Amino acid sequence: MLALAATQQDSSPARELGFGSIMREIFVRNPSYPHMVEETLADLFDDPAVEELCRSVIGCTVQQISQVFAAIRELYREVWESCATAWADIASTGVSNTATPSDVPQHTLDHLRRLADDRSVYPRMTTADIASRSALSIETAQTVLDLFTAPLTDRAPGEVAVDFFRGKSPLRTQPILRAPDGTYAVPHDALFVHSIRERVETALKQGSTPWAAYQKHRGDYLERTSIVLLTPHLPGHTLHAAFDYLVPDNEDQDKLTPEKYTKKVEGDGLIVVDDIAIIIEAKAVALRQHSRTGRSGPLWQDLRRMVTIAAEQGDRLRERILQDGGLRLIDDSWLDLSGIREVHTVAATLDDLSGIATTTHQLVNAGLLTEANIPWVVSLHDLRVISELIDRPAELILYLRRRTDPELTKRIQSADELDYFMYFLEGRLYAEPDPDVLQREIPALSTPSAEQRRRYREQRRTVEYFEPLTEEIDVWYQGKLSGLPDAANKPQMQSDPRLLALVDDITARHEEGWLALATTLLSGDRETQIKFGIMSDALTEKTREDGLSHRIVCPGGSRREDSFVLVWMNVVPGTGSDTAHGDLKNFVTAKKHQLQVSRGFGMLFEASTGTLSATVFDNRLPGADAELDALVTDLNLMDVLSMQRHQRTGRPTKPTLRKKKRR
Fold first, then answer.
1. Is the pTM of this model over 0.85?
2. Which of 125, 169, 313, 652 has most Cβ atoms within 10 angstroms of its Cβ?
């Protein structure tokens, strides 16, 4: 209620983002898996130069901070285990509730009296205790304690509670409490590891020179690690990292050819595979405290630095790729990217922005993004989890398509990126496209009906703020970290097994267009995926009946840039494979041109076994072409109006089975 009241008073477009920020602070204690946070801390702060910066500014290193926290955790555990042992002793003696003190062992009584004399329910420790256990000097231990101790004030408890429910918690970066007698206690040791980076970075800002050096180190680390997490899923890729290229200096220059561009800009990363490019923009800046409490002004400013600028920089590179067909690099060489048809931007952050940047339509409403330019905004730790869960390249590209779909977060809302990914693996991260947009952009594919418009309009809206979906991932990681032989299985994509086998076959063949084809096959809803899985069997069955070769044609898409036509065809014994492959290539080219879609895919199967023998790919830009017009006429293709009778808006059309006559 407090969070709602605070945001209701805000009339800015960023009000919903402020509410998401408050919800995140209230409900999320561990924004990332602790073992991943520890790995990131080691990567960021164990560098000798960074360790020296920390010593000079705050008087200790992150490794020493970790030693202090480990000592507190160990002392804490020992006290509670001792308490549990005392109660176990009582239980083991079988002493009843009416027993007298003489019936209880003396060492148990002594322990219980010590517990009763302690006015705090939490075990309390001195600096000397902590220093001794951590093998550090008392001075170093005290430095760490001072850095992470939340100041206790005389404010009324109710005021502090109200602050918490408005998104302000002092324990987020200072998770240790100090009593007036100088002893220390911790409310919960799970707060430790998540507080370190932000607290140390805040301290490093006290010196401009150390902070500048650390900032560069942090940015380089984020760029490098983001690339390392993405590239293993893209076999045969070409990578360009930390490169400079030239762009138009102003609108007038935008009319010039690339060799006349004069403005130098930098790209963090560009991964090219098949006809797909992934742009990486790394934003290592952090949210400020005011932003975390939902104040729309500071939050809007921070998100602009982290999200909007990343989107603008990614879009700048995307425009040059798609408009110019390549990049003019700073050394005046030309990077040819004329074959690229699909471009995605990954905006990687060190801060977890769950509940804020996960709902992209709210970023659009706030003016931080446009529907035409939506990056996938993801924290490094969520990217690490997703990287470990992905099994095939097509899953990564399909997830990028779904998460950057402006329709999706209007239908499905969650505070956690991993909730979205679990929806994806379960096959539920799917939104019906707008049939009127499809008809406007690709007239040959669709004439919307009242039923299609109703289905789009009445899609169920799902909100997942309070029911986390990541339990399967949690259990899997617990099993991995514990090394148990019966650990839970890794969460995997739930799709038709026959379709997944086909996708894996296409991926292994690595023929031209393999990644776009594999991704498109997985892009339909569950019903469509099941149909795609049995297409080759349907061809085999028809051929078994009449001995002829057959084709299945299936166009689809939601917008011009992702429109496609899929063609399944089988080749009967006695027909040369080269001849069949040529026939399929001509048919795909002609059908793609007739429909004016962005990509055409063909798959050739052996009629006797149903196994895939070859693929065909055509991604030439749609447009007028007299030669292709003649090919359409020569092949006597079904006209567009006839095809529309078989279509359903927003998903691949109903497959059309056509007999192919013998030559």
1. yes
2. 652
